[in-house]
Amino acid sequence: MTTDRLATDRPATDTGPFHAGERDIQARYGLARKMEQIGRKVIRPFMPLQHQVFFMQLPSFFLGWQDRDSRPWASVLTGAPGFLSAPNDSLLRVDALPAAGDPLRAHLAVGAKVGGLGLEFETRRRNRLNGTVTALDAAGFTIGVEQSFGNCPQYIQTRDLVRSENAGREIAVESFGTLAAADIALIERADTFFIASHAGPAEGAVSQGADVSHRGGKPGFVRVTADGVLEFPDYAGNRQFQTLGNIRMTGRAGLLFIDFEAGDLLRLTGDAEIVFEGPQVDAVPGAERLVRLRPVAGSRVRGGMPLAWKFDAYSPVLDRLGP
Q: What pTM did the predictor assign?
């Protein structure tokens, strides 16, 4: 089994689209030069018009951020379509604030690095951005966009937005340090989760901010070991390795699991490592690597999502991964 992490004291060598952790993994697979060329074309310092329009039609927005202990967390904000808007191609306005009890609420501030993900479940379309909070008020906040890029629809299950019984309901957030049986059950039946990460101090490079991404698979693709470690496969993707590159730099990640029909939310943050090769990887159909996360803190919310989605279909890509 091979696991390792890049030293976090390596400074950024340029202001290109990738930081040292991303470039290190790209080089491991002989992709560094190719991905540098691709990255400079597809990762933009502004939102293309189609991304601006896309965000405006969404009822939800996923955020990745880090707390005062540099722990990554993933959160979700919701609103009527239009609650996300783009005053121009460099700013995304979010007319929503974290719910009471969401750990993001206490840490959202001007100057904070955040990663954003817009995902339209019905069409499997998704776009990401990274940036800095430039304004905050009683109604919401604004993100100054530093990186904007699209993602392919692989591993996204289609879901249809349906009426939720949770809209307007008071929510209670419970913090915990150890996973309960109900938490493990939610994790192990999940076909989707969201992963937040960051690459450490910005050091003036836009490639070193916060990030949030999506992961999908058939139920059971995330397992919880007997000692409470979450383990999940990393399937073939866009080869940019933003999430894995961040984990290489910091050894940390945050996960968000959603019960899409009941609206329950489960957030975790913990220490992460990448298993690049070995029998553990070989034993998981379709896996190119494994990621392991040992939770150090978490929070759960019953009925905390004011939206609901009904499952439609698994991504057709999953059938090609094997049994």
A: 0.92
